[in-house]
Amino acid sequence: MSGSGGSTEGTEHTKDTGPAEAIPGGPRTPRGRGPVVAALMLGMALAALDGTVVSTAVPQIVGDLGGFAVFSWLFSGYLLAVTVTLPVYGKLSDTLGRKPVLVAGIVLFLIGSLLCATAWNMASLIAFRVVQGLGGGALQGTVQTIAADLYPLKERPKIQAKLSTVWASSSVAGPAVGGFIAGYADWRWIFLINLPVGAVALWLVVRYLHEPHRARSGTDTARGTGTRAGTASGAGTGRAPRSRPRIDWAGAVGVFATGALLLTALVQGGVAWPWLSAPSLAFLGASAFLAAFTVVIERRAAEPIIPGWVWRRRTIAAVNLALGALGLLMVAPTVFLPTYAQSVLGLGPIAAGFVLSAMTLSWPVSAALSNRVYNRVGFRQTAVIGISLATLVLLSFPLLPYPGHAWQPTLIMLLLGAALGLFQLPLIIGVQSTVGWAERGTATASILFCRLIGQSVGAAVFGAVANSVLSERLASAPTPGLPEDVDGVARALEDPASLSAEAAEYLRRAMDTAVDHVYVGAAGAGALALLALLLLAPRRFPVLPDPPADQQDP
């Protein structure tokens, strides 16, 4: 498919909103892009490996520093910082350029890693993880944006497949790396190994990523017809007059504070305090007030952090909602499947991890091949096919026999990864192809932001669903000797010898039922994503034309 196609079947509609994006001083050979691509993959590996490596070493960290009651904030604090900074970094990359934002993100991440290695208690480690997250937000959003800047539309699946492979490899290798370090070295090396990897990525970015100087006019900013980022070796082709960029710092603070309060309410609600307690209501009420206040600020800002066009354009709004639903449904496999594999199937932690890894293996393969589908039927239709298949796969999970065999959920995860590869990547590439350079960072950050918000909401909603099912089963249990509350279920199943055979079997069935309910809820999230695409997304995305042939990479 060519981005400049017309009305033939399977070709996206081209929106002629101005001159085609040029690549002044951009790479002229694939070799010129190579060092930058390597830097992007290393940067993505830093962000992707972080959570999986740390999770394996939690027992050693808690044993050394204490703080078992709050250790979950090692992950929640990092996720919160990444999520609330994504829109800010997206706008800054459109305003200041990708390179300074990416460099700042890598530096922040490495400073956070070094500080984590020096932590003296759990509170300090959590605070330093937040610093890591401030860098991780820049890594995730800016890497995806530069990937779109580097390649014309027809070649973007190549780089996206490479980045997806990094995520998949990290998901598989992370627990093993973390377990090896925790078992044979001090847990602090989990953070120190980030330093050489990040240093190489930083050197490659500073040395090889060159963006041409651009004129930033009001029209370019508003309509997204700014020139395309020239990346890799080669300087810009002359200095254009450039006005001083205006940064909406008030809006940035508002977005950050609103997101922090909302995510804290979602993460801690039902865990640290009941949902209808004073702390939950206070956090939710304060986040709602700040959200309204931030909207007022953004409407008055000349260059808002989250501009209104993100939601006024049907394509981007539909994709934001669809990927928010994706974040929601992803909680089922990533959070509840390992518990199911260990508690119901009786697998060990490593074997349970391999059941989940089946999804991460098929996802990048499917994503890499998705261009063969959307070249024929278009971005929206490819995503519709993917999410429809994913919904059916999720609905098949409750049909598994009890207790079943490990290959059965593994097969389901393999199919789910293949379906979601067809769903997510065409939407990301599609949105990036409908905006110019001056809007691409903001658009990319908005869809990643919505997915992470969906993930946080999903953790809260499906956690409540699972707890409700388990509580009901415990209340109506005919078997004596069961835990008195939901918190005791996981501990009891970790040591089934402490229970009678009848009680252990009852708990396994209760856990099986709870996870089945979660997967049905995840299928509902898939249906919501499908509706968002069918009702809101245009049949053909308004794709901007690619650069002329004489300006593209050979």
List keywords for this structure.
disordered N terminus; disordered C terminus; Growth Hormone, Chain: A
What report would you give on this structure?
The structure is a single chain. The chain is mainly α. The protein has 3 domains: about 1-25 and about 305-554, MFS general substrate transporter like domains (Growth Hormone, Chain: A, Up-down Bundle), CATH 1.20.1250; about 25-210, MFS general substrate transporter like domains (Growth Hormone, Chain: A, Up-down Bundle), CATH 1.20.1250.20; about 250-300, no CATH class. Helix content is about 70%, strand content about 0%. The chain is built from 20 helices and no strands. The longest helix is centred in the last third of the chain and has 39 residues, at about 435-475.
Helix and strand layout, with pairings?
Blueprint: H1 30-56, H2 58-65, H3 73-96, H4 98-117, H5 122-150, H6 156-184, H7 189-192, H8 194-208, H9 218-223, H10 249-268, H11 278-300, H12 309-312, H13 314-343, H14 349-369, H15 371-377, H16 379-396, H17 407-432, H18 437-475, H19 487-494, H20 501-536
Helix pairs in contact: 1-5, 1-6, 1-8, 3-4, 3-5, 3-10, 3-18, 4-5, 4-8, 5-6, 5-18, 6-14, 10-11, 10-18, 13-14, 13-17, 13-18, 13-20, 14-17, 15-16, 16-17, 16-20, 18-20
Brief summary:
With 554 residues, the protein is an all-alpha fold. The protein has helices at 30-56, 58-65, 73-96, 98-117, 122-150, 156-184, 189-192, 194-208, 218-223, 249-268, 278-300, 309-312, 314-343, 349-369, 371-377, 379-396, 407-432, 437-475, 487-494, 501-536.
